[in-house]
Amino acid sequence: MSATGREVRREFEQADGSGGPGAGAARLVVADDDAGIRALIGAALDGYIVLEAARGDDALALVRREGPDLVVLDVQMPGLDGLTVARRLATDPATAAIPVILCSGVGPAAAAAVGRVGGVSAFLPKPFSPRELRTTVERALGAPKAGRWVGEQERPEASRGRPLVGPG
Description:
The protein is an alpha/beta fold and 168 residues long. The chain has six helices and five strands.
């Protein structure tokens, strides 16, 4: 995996000790195989330190290496899919406490599968607005991870009228 501009900026800030513009900001890993979606998510999450991955296996390695405050995963990615990455994060004691938001444009079937994955804090169906994303991220960062859904999906069934199976 090659370093993105945001990763390089973060490493520079730490190396020179200046703190810089991202000092004290929550660190997020965003994984989506679509570079345009990653750019949109990064723009919507201005003010956060965003580390990017295009593949699920790269996202898993990045999370283990960086220990971010939150992870946003697309469900369908090359390497490992987002559901597999979420399961692995949830079962690893070093990463189990990190909130995970899963995003997908594949519809209700993916949402139902998400409901069966432990450790997922929220499901955000694509397309989503920057405001929906930011609100979901802010709530996930402030919510305990104990299998509780956050954001507009306090009850998964309420997600835009799409039937979901909740966690548990």
